Amino acid sequence: MVPGQVARWGAGAASGRATGGRAWLGGKGGAVPSAGGSGRGKAGGRVAAAAPEPEVPMKLGTPGAVQPGPPDGSCEQPGPLGPSQQNGAVPGEQGKQEKSVKRGNWGNQIEFVLTSVGYAVGLGNVWRFPYLCYRNGGGAFMFPYFIMLVFCGIPLFFMELSFGQFASQGCLGVWRVSPMFKGVGYGMMVVSTYIGIYYNVVICIAFYYFFVSMTRVLPWTYCSNPWNTPDCVGVLDGNLSSRAALNISQLLNTTQKRTSPSEEYWRRYVLNLSDDIGNLGEVRLPLLGCLGVSWVVVFLCLIKGVKSSGKVVYFTATFPYVVLTILFVRGITLEGAVTGIMYYLTPQWDKILNAKVWGDAASQIFYSLGCAWGGLITMASYNKFNNNCYRDSIIISITNCATSVYAGFVIFSILGFMANHLGVDVSKVADHGPGLAFVAYPEALTLLPISPLWSILFFFMLILLGLGTQFCLLETLVTAIVDEVGNEWIIRKKTFVTLGVAVAGFLLGVPLTTQAGIYWLLLMDNYAASFSLVVISCIMCVAIMYIYGHRNYFKDIEMMLGFPPPLFFQICWRFISPAIIFFILVFTVIQYRPISYNDYVYPTWAISIGFLMALSSVICIPIYAIYKVCRSEGDTLLERLKNATKASKDWGPALPEHRSGRYAPAFSPSTESHLEVQPLQPEKGQSEAAAASPIQGSNGSAHSQDSRL
Asked: 400 labelled as ligand-binding?
């Protein structure tokens, strides 16, 4: 059967397949095709060779069973269900649709866009992007950042969305496109696991600040607390002027560093920071309790998969912008805010030659947009097949990066105010890393009227930003597990899979709530979610463009969207994006410097653990490739490689109604003749007998049964 015949028979058909000796015979034209139809059936890729049960040909050949076609001219036949349908089985296409419903779909397209925005716009936009700008020369960081966005970020974002949407599978199932590279999917799962573990720890710290803000005076407002040191200088202290002058004098004459009450609250009370990464100390019970709360919230929001999380994002993805705008308006009205914003925007061009700046720009794009995490593939897999993911990728990417820049204005306006107040340079007023969000912001909040209220709103915003990303991280792991197993039992028990992953994530996050937890958190952030993301993205580009074939993939996108990808994206996918990613990786390795946190330098054994974490996700790719080649058919290594990289038979759109063109089921001539002849043989005698007496058609015309068939 050629695809054109299937298309001509109409779109409302049932498929046929052989099950337990019973033949379900049908075609795109239903039980009996219209005049001129050949009567051939589509069998979902399989053809029934066994003879049909007696009642099936009788229903096809008995005059009373011939139903009039619908008035719209399609070939779908109404009437009573066949025996195979009556016993609970649903013919091919309907069965696929039922499976898709069981897997879950977005309620509407807005849910997908908001979820993707919530996934991309996360805590990194507040405490990672401004931190990278601050470390890499302010505005000089913008140039490599937007270069990476245009030539790597958006193209890879579009590639992952189209990849998952076309196959309607998670980060493992999509690699039916080239089974040897399924290790890329496992690498994405490992990366998402690492990020999900420490990301929720940051959310739990935000929960902690959220709870302690429910007081009349914020605990980090003044320097009169038991955990404060003599070096503490608060912006609201009564003797601020004299103490600030004294502190500036000390800065000029000694190496002593001014500390704010919010900084001491963060390091000496919340974290109770130990002196070494190996000295775990005690578990901070308040943080442990907040970690449990954050995992419970994530689980409850994902208890029904995308059906429940899709409703939550209406609030979690939009409310943070309200708070950011309030803080921005307050920040730019402060004295010295312009100085901080100029430090944010003025480029230090000498740093742009440092490969570390370009490496940070690339890793930030991957980190912020979520490329190579597997989340984009997973979220897009719940889309409708013909959704315009090209449009979505542009909207979401621009929204994400605009939010990063916007949050940077909020941060640096506050830093400029603090620097002006103390008479020091902007670079001396804040810590690196997540402490920026828990040091600079809390101190700024003490300047606002009714500061506890603003503190509650701000940290609630941080919680929502984090949860939006955490939802997708957890759903990525759960979807990959459920799709990989794929049986009815695990689909019904998906809630328990979600619970199991959440419990495992909580237990693995407990060490990060110890006194040395911040050291481990930054170690995971710098290694588990940096180098490996670059490698995974590069290999994914190569596998799709050069192993599966760029022409095949462009045709897939055209079949899905109705138009091929723009020429710019075709060039980026094939040449520019892989080349830039590769050279950035090389230069980053050459310019590598060991990680440090403030004045603390990580020991060699800790850095080795960091490299092992980065390697653990990348090593999945060659290990699975070797395994797949060994298990593939073939007498020579070359034959095994070809079979291992060739797309599997079930690669393509999930629903039969979308499997057209080269994905349409193919039949051999002998099978077609068998399907044509066998159902009609029992009818021949009856049709000859009935030829003498005309049959009244639905339109009032008389015709014989033979001519109808």
From this structure: yes
Distance CA 510, CA 505 (A): 9
CA 696 to chain centre: 59
Is 487 annotated to bind a ligand? Reply is no
Helices (H), 254-284: 261-264
Give the relative orientation of helices 182-212 and 435-445 as an angle to the nearest 10 degrees: 30
Closest CA to 357 of 119, 142, 577: 142
Q: What is the C-alpha separation between 296 and 278, in angstroms, rounded?
A: 29
Decide if pLDDT at 488 tops 60: yes
Long-range contacts for 250-257 (Cβ within 8 Å, ≥24 apart)? 251/424, 256/231, 257/231, 257/428
Single-letter amino acid code for the residue at 488: E
Greatest Cα-to-Cα distance within the chain, rounded to the nearest angstrom: 118
Residue type, 366: F
Q: Are strands 596-597 and 22-23 parallel, antiparallel or unpaired?
A: unpaired
Sequence-separated (6 or more) residues with CB below 8 Å from residue 474: 196, 298, 299, 302, 498, 501, 502, 505
CB–CB of 393/150 below 8 Å? no
Mean pLDDT lowest for which of 433-437, 451-455, 696-700? 696-700
d(CA 492, CA 305): 12
- The answer to whether the annotation marks 121 as part of a ligand binding site is yes
* DSSP letters for 476-515: HHHHHHHHHH-SHHHHHTHHHHHHHHHHHHHHHHGGGGBT
Q: Are 437 and 463 in contact (CB under 8 A)?
A: no
CB burial of residue 90 (10 Å; 0-12, 13-18, 19+): middle
Model's pTM, two decimal places?
A: 0.77
Determine whether the annotation assigns residue 38 to a binding site. no
According to DSSP, residue 522 is labeled: H
CA distance 647 to 181: 11
- pLDDT tens profile 88-97: 333 433 444 4
Q: Does 465 count as an annotated binding residue?
A: yes
Q: CA torsion 680→685→691→693, rounded to 10°?
A: -120
Compute CA distances 486 → 170, 172, 173, 310, 492, whole Å.
11, 12, 10, 23, 11
3-class secondary-structure state, position 91: coil
Sequence-distant (6+) residues with CB within 8 A of 55 are: 83
Question: What phi and psi values does residue 703 have, to the nearest 5 degrees?
Answer: -155, 160
Residues 6+ apart with CB under 8 A from 69: 34, 75, 76, 77, 698
H or E element in which residue 671 lies = helix 669-677
**Res. 9 pLDDT band, cuts 50 70 90:** very low
Mean pLDDT of 484-496: 90
DSSP 215: S
125 assigned binding-site residue? yes
* Residue found under tokens 């202290």: 237
Q: Is 270 annotated as a binding residue?
A: no
Higher pLDDT, 60 or 390: 390
